[in-house]
Design goal:
By secondary structure, the protein is an alpha+beta fold. Helix content is 51%, strand content 21%. A hairpin with a 2-residue loop joins β2 and β3.
Length: 164
């Protein structure tokens, strides 16, 4: 499951596991080791604290190295123009940079975490009436709801003055 990465093998060894162990087995071994080495159950010596720190480092490394793949659904316009999207799943966050003209089914790794990948799915075009309503709403927000740069600057200055 893990491959032959020496860091992963070292992490599994720190938890007392074989290279064929699963993440669930690693978590169970970590819990047992943490209970056994925790200062509430054993005297806190430099050796036990070092072993506990190694176990924590090992499980964090294994959790980060666990392969996770998600579906990332985009509109046709988003796929055509490209974008960056931050996704959090099961306590794991990743930033995905989708290049313009990305095709459906493309696998994209998260920036800085190649074990966290997204499969791009492009939604089918809907009927023109729904698109028109959504576009009209977006245009209304642009024209009337979002404040202009000048009004944002004025608000920032008012806050700065009142805070001083």
């Amino acid at each position: 499951m893990w491959g032959s990465d020496p860091d992963i093998l070292r992490s599994l060894k720190a938890l007392g596991l074989t290279p064929h162990a699963s993440l669930a087995q690693a978590k169970a071994a970590f819990r047992q080791r943490a209970k056994a080495l925790h200062p509430d159950h054993t005297p806190a010596t430099p050796e036990t604290l070092s072993l506990l720190a190694d176990a924590v480092k090992a499980i964090r490394h294994l959790e980060k190295s666990d392969i996770m793949e998600i579906d990332l659904t985009l509109s046709p316009d988003e796929a055509r123009t490209g974008l960056s999207r931050t996704v959090t799943r099961k306590g794991r966050s990743g930033v995905f940079r989708i290049a313009p003209e990305t095709a459906s089914g493309t696998r994209i790794p998260a920036i800085g975490d190649t074990a966290f990948t997204a499969v791009v799915r492009i939604r089918a075009e809907t009927d023109g009436k729904t698109q028109g309503i959504e576009t009209g709403l977006n245009q209304f927000i642009e024209d009337f709801v979002k404040s202009s740069p000048a009004s944002r600057m004025a608000g920032w200055l008012r806050k700065a003055r009142s805070a001083a």
